[in-house]
Amino acid sequence: MPGDTKLIEFLVENDDEGERIDVFLSRKAPVLTRSRARKLLDEDCVRVRGKAVKPSFRVQEGDRIVVEWREPAAYLLEPEDIPVAIVYEDDALIVVDKPPGMVVHPAAGNYRGTLVNALLFHAKNFSGIGGILRPGIVHRLDRNTSGLMVVAKSDEAHVALARQFSDRTVKKIYRVLVHGNVREDSGIIDMAIGRHPSDRKKMSTKSRRGRPALSRWEVTERFGPVSLLDVRIETGRTHQIRVHLSAAGYPVVGDSVYGSSKRRIEALRDMTLRRILSAMKRQALHAAGLEFTHPVTERLLSFSSPLPPDMASVCETLREHAARDL
Q1: Rounded to a whole number, what is the largest CA-CA distance in the chain?
Q2: How big, in percent rounded to 5, are the helix, strand and coil portions of the chain?
Q3: Minimal CA–CA distance to 241: which of 276, 288, 184?
Q4: Each residue of 128-177: pLDDT tens digit?
Q5: Catalytic residue among 142, 167, 230, 270
Q6: Which of 22, 76, 159, 210 is in Cβ range 3.0-4.6 Å of 192 for a Cys bridge?
Q7: Alpha-carbon gap, residue 15 to 49, rounded angstroms
Q8: Residue 22 annotated as catalytic
Q9: Taking the model in full, what pTM does it have?
Q10: 230 and 174 in contact (C-beta within 8 Å)?
């Protein structure tokens, strides 16, 4: 049984002139990766002024680009009655506060218990641009990262939101607990990020083909050998905050992939601190702030989320421990 037909249209503006069409498409619609854009181009699913073009085609101002494809039949997603915090909802979008431990969307071997399954129980209609397994998903958070996400309920909202992410006009603030007594009050980490040179499952600032990545951080509280930061990311690279902070010498508490958090905890002389930090069973990273322009009303929407119970408990215990040492 064939899947649904999807269609996106773009009008090339002056600033885009001369760009390769595969690059143009992946930049304007992040839901279309460059490799997926090339595949659609090779399959004659992309037309400029009514004619099929290839990946090397250079766009010109005024070109009207139509991308149309048919999704293959896939695993039928099942709505599941899983509690999820809805922060805001209207006909165009939903803003959710994702708990830690929840996968955002289904993938091979993991088709149940995801945020998508939960949202399909809550509402039936979501945009289909992201594909059958990712309805409405404009951006993602790692499984063990908690916090705010926006999900599109219509294709039009999806395209408009994706463009804001691509244009870096979406404001995203994360609250992060890191190893180290960060001396400066604020700073900027400007390091390109790409695949790790030897471990393809990881990202790295030492990649030979890294993409620009910028993170701004500010200390909000200090607990001796641990600090609480607010981090605003100007770009959205995979694992950006975890990679950047590890490279800067302040790895995220509880991060088992970047920065050897377990080894750092075991090296602490203070046994109470060891016990407190060991209670953090995942990376202490929370998407605490999200601000964007509504894709229909064009009203500026701003949302905030308090620390989830696990991070809040660790921070409170750290405060109490620090107060006793005064």
Answers
A1: 73
A2: 25, 30, 45
A3: 288
A4: 656 665 778 899 899 999 999 999 998 889 989 988 998 899 999 999 99
A5: 142
A6: 210
A7: 19
A8: no
A9: 0.78
A10: yes
